[in-house]
Amino acid sequence: MVVESEKPLTQYHINLLQVFSENVNNGFNNIVLCNRLSELAYFDPQLNIPNRAWLVRFLDNLPTSERCQSVIVALNIKDFAELVLSVDSDFLSSFLQQFHRKLQQRFKAQRVIARVTDSCFIILLNSEDLPTPQAMAKLNHFKVMTNNVQLHAEASVALMNLCELTTVSGRELLHMMDSTLLQSQREHLALIQYNPQFRSSILERHQLMQGLNNAIDQGRLLLMFQPKVRLDDGRVMGLEALARWREADGHYIPPGKFVPVAEMSGLINKLDLHVMHLTVTAIKRLLDAGMPLPVSFNVTSSDLDDLFFMDSLDQLCRESPQITQWLEIEITESQTMQDYQHVRPLLQNLIDKGISVSIDDFGTGYSSLQHITELSATELKIDKTFVDAMERDKSGEAIVDMVIKLGKRFNYSVIAEGIETPAQVQQLSALGCEFGQGFWFAKPMEFDDLLNYLKDKTKGTDGSAI
Ligand code: C2E
Ligand code: MG
Ligand code: MG
């Protein structure tokens, strides 16, 4: 510190100046620390470019007039998680740097390039600088030279015009972009343009999810029961429990509407756990009524990975062993086959506990044949589409015939679902199918109606009990 003074400095002045210098020094240190914090909070550590938080803040502060002239392009590198696992961190850093450089080359007039998730980059542009449709069409493929290795990176691309969204917060905009990219992945689209309908369907899904959560908590998630019968004499040999969501006004929302949303949101484990408890209650009531029957309920593969769900099932088997033999789970063939090596021991574990396992919608998953000799299942349930096709053409009949023969050969019980006509019953019986389920026999019904139905079934034609 240089001090200009007419008088010599006293010790008192020198002390004061020292305190003053310390403060200035602390001030500078704080600026460095703040800069570092802001760097950590707002910049991607690998590429030193703006991150998601930076972009959110930037979009929030963008004046409406500028937003109106802006578009954002999002590029999501496909199979990025696999890439991360298969290369070392230096290679990955180098790949990301090259990829970023390619983006700079392809979007020369960009205002910002931000990395908003590990695999996703967002480029903010003025509308007039948007690449031509021909150039946009090339954005799905990148050749990236990394450490003398040429990698072909595939990306899904989404486009959002900010002019239609001037009042939406930056956070919400990026969330909408995430959903748009998800949509493009689901539909295998090369390029997707954000459509306001996406937002309303997201909101609708969100409301549905909250409503479903409340319905479970408030006991408005109920079960209907559909009989499974022997085809030769129509005797009931089991039941399937099917979830129904009763709205406050009494009308039912079918599972086709809420199960996919529950699966997407992770609420499915809570839903299926609730269904499991209701199924157990139904089994107990049937035992008490002197009409013991196996009751199946539907699960998804994520239930098998959910520790809470599996612990609850374990506990139930320990506490009520008399229930286990009547309990059956149904899991679709496509879910079973998605990660067969992982799912198989989990299903086998259930079978070892005495719980039956039915492979639902069998025939639609396409990939079971190679595993048919060793499926961890007790039952194959032929999908309704084949039961329908059976009447129409020979190939439909051939598939049903094949499943029945294979099922018998490898000791699975085989049931056909969605039977609606006596002709289907006849055809299935002729092919050797022993069991069936469908509207021809009975529609799903509430428990009290089921008890009456079962009582009627056990009466002779003259009304006497048989
Ligand atoms: P799913 O397990 O294959 O159940 C059969 C579906 O076909 C049921 O529809 C049933 O009502 C319907 N069905 C039965 N017989 C006939 C027939 O003869 N004709 C026609 N047109 N349909 C028939 P639902 O109850 O709407 O269930 C649809 C799907 O929702 C189920 O297919 C199952 O995959 C899923 N689901 C139902 N309840 C649950 C649940 O508690 N948890 C899970 N994870 N999924 C469930
Ligand atoms: Mg089912
Ligand atoms: Mg089915």
TrEMBL record:
SUPFAM superfamilies, sorted: EAL domain-like (SSF141868)
Identification of the protein by name: EAL domain-containing protein
Domain EAL: 205-458
Organism superkingdom: Bacteria
Pfam families: EAL (PF00563)
Classification via InterPro entries: Cyclic-di-GMP_PDE-like, EAL_dom, EAL_sf, Rev_trsase/Diguanyl_cyclase
Database matches in PANTHER family: CYCLIC DI-GMP PHOSPHODIESTERASE PDEF, SIGNALING PROTEIN YKOW
